[in-house]
Amino acid sequence: MSNNGETKSPFDFTEAGKRPRVEAYAQKLVFTVGEGVYLLKIGGSREGPYIVAIAPVNGKCTLSYGNGQSFRNNEQMNVDDLESSAWIYSTSES
């Protein structure tokens, strides 16, 4: 078996001498139940944090407040409009 001395690069160079770059990521961030998130508003401001109450399905999930009350009557929120707040809500007591 011969590969003609060529090794395929894992990077895609579009122009000679240019640095490789990622055009788009194949997978978006997936939120999990109990994860804290911010709702991104028009203009770049954030609202929240809220808690992911129902895991994302087809790009939408349901949020709740920290006390367990549903957010906007369980309206499904688009995950593209959410940003992780980098904390996890836990109902267990330490």
Question: Can you describe what's shown?
Answer:
By secondary structure, the protein is an all-beta fold. It has a domain at 35-88: SH3 type barrels. Helices cover 0% and strands 35% of the residues. The chain is built from no helices and 5 strands. It has strands at residues 35-40, 46-57, 60-64, 76-78, 82-88. It has a 5-stranded antiparallel sheet, with no helix packed on it.
Classified by CATH, the class of the domain at 35-88 is Mainly Beta
Taking the sheet with the most strands, its summary is: 5 strands, antiparallel
Mean pLDDT: 80
The best one-word shape is elongated
Name the beta content range: 35-45%
CATH architecture of the domain at 35-88: Roll
| Coarse structural class | mainly beta
- Strand elements, count: 5
Low-pLDDT parts are none
Q: Termini separation (Å)? A: 61 Å
Supply the key terms:
five-stranded antiparallel beta sheet, 35% strand, SH3 type barrels, 5 strands, single chain, mainly beta, 94 residues
Summarize this entry quickly:
With 94 residues, the chain is mostly beta strands.
Fold topology:
Elements: E1 35-40, E2 46-57, E3 60-64, E4 76-78, E5 82-88
Antiparallel strand pairs: 1-2, 1-5, 2-3, 3-4
